[in-house]
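On clarity, I found the account of how folds are encoded harder to follow than it need be. For illustration, here is how one protein appears when written out as sequence plus structure tokens.
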Amino acid sequence: MNAENSLTPFSFHGRTRIEFGPGSIAGLGSLIPGGCRRVLVVTDPGVAKAGHAAHALDSIERAGLEARCFDGVVENPTDACVARGVEAARAAGAEAVAAVGGGSAMDCAKSVALLITNGGEIADYRGHGKVKRPILPLFVVPTTAGTGSEVQSAALITASKTGEKMLIKDPHVAPLAAVLDPELTLTLPPTVTAATGIDAITHAVESFVSTKANALSRAFAAAAFRHLRAAFPKVLDRPDDLGARGAMLVGASLAGLSIESSMLGAAHSAANPLTHCYGITHGVAVGLLLPHVVRFNAEEPRAAAAYGELTGRPARDAARGLASDIEVLLDRARLPARLAALGIARELLSELADEAAGQWTAGFNPRPVRAHDFLEIYQCAF
């Protein structure tokens, strides 16, 4: 986070080809390698209704390939959702998989492509480096500017029985190519634009100050933050601004690249229990908590200095200014800024804090954070 730590050892492997530009979904079919005759398109009902899956199917078919569609992806996909996708892939005889949608569609598609070639259940691959064979060739087309999953070798799948998010991380899981077409994001409802946009900003902020942050990840995160900070207010005010939509897509992918070689922090750990216990949209939860985590982390001198580097402010003022800026963005995006507004009762905060302390991202927060610290963060956010 400073000159002394700027050469922290790291490992980074660029695995995903990125194609960016308006209308670029038309070239999806040409990216799929020879020998892959049948392709399963994985998407959700909303994206299918918007017509984006049809664009993907058309591009694939124009390339002389067969295409089938699985549109059963649910938000925060579960192992059961993945199992249904695997059934669809086998029925189609799929030799490649293409995801069209947000992080949920991409994570589900990654898991389907993994299980077709490796077998078993997705829980068998929970953790790091457990995938033994290459997955089916995977191509992704994000329709939201949020998760950055399109450039990551990881998937998050919810365990049906416990509601816990399982991380599957392995080099094999990375897509072969990502198509970033800003035209596809023009149809996003304002609430989705807001929630995914603040999620991407949180990725940039948290990955920049993560204990695993390094020179390369910070370069990606800083570039992501610049794009997102400038473009987010524009897409809120002018949803049809294609240039701003493109900047949001690029910013989200840059933040995803930063996460790929660093990690996240306490805002994500605190948000996850709100999502799986109370159904609160991930972007809403993480955006609400981010200002309070920034203020909490500012007590750690290296984190304070890092916020200064990220924002261009003096270290003594950076965290306070950044937290205030985020709260302004939350208000502008009409996103809730208090847990009480989400219907969370104060007596639940201790239980939430205990669960947040057990989340894996907590271990990468720049300031050590335990259950009593999470309780303090929740109380500040209440």
